[in-house]
Amino acid sequence: MSTAKKDIKKMTTHQLQEMKNRGEKISMLTAYDYSYAKIVDDAGIDVILVGDSASNVMAGHETTLPITLDQMIYHSQSVLRAVDRALVVVDLPFGSYQGNSSEALRSAIRIMKESGAHSVKLEGGSEVIDSIKRILSAGIPVMGHLGLTPQSIYKFGTYTVRAKEVEEAAKLIEDAKLLEEAGCFAIVLEKIPAKLAKEVSQQLTIPTIGIGAGADVDGQVLVLHDLLGVTKEFNPRFLRRYANMYDDMKDAVGEYIKDVKSKDFPNDKEQY
Question: Active-site residue 190, yes or no?
């Protein structure tokens, strides 16, 4: 059983910075509902991301683009009801912040007010910097996200590793510095070469959290359903599965069906 709750009552952006300063790695996972968030928080996770990956994992969409702001708020409300310790970060969904800093601020305020979230995450660098600054000016903590940014999948055309070329790598470093200067408290680096992620992490004073970005970032994040083996189709190199819940749950449901069909359930002890 984790003793993390005894050590820290409530995780904050300040504590994440202190973790980087002392060389302690940051643990981060996604959660989209009360039940899973309760387990993840109780285990002692540092950060919970209510990711727009809910579009894939919870709703079955091919990309993250279809999920709406209202749906993200619903998922966030569910997660926040479960959390006692972790810092909760919520993704601003596609279309709720790009190109209009006023709309970005309204979206962020809705998430904070209606869900009780602790911070928001936006994808992109210089192209969304005005939106980030506007949100920060209202006192809302912002986490950045660079590298493979899934909301731009139709621009990239593929989920392959980003910033392998010199020009794109240079822009990523420039964007990371820009996000830090603007006031972001941390940056997610997704699916970029480990060497580049290390360089970015060393150049920044704020924490970097990697997904498919090697071991030399300040923390790691995975999609919970991938880690638990609830999803089976997604098998990238960076994923480590810690359970095989798809098969375990399928077997359990199969046993239930068998017991109902054979009239073994309920037995005498399972009725009033």
Answer: yes
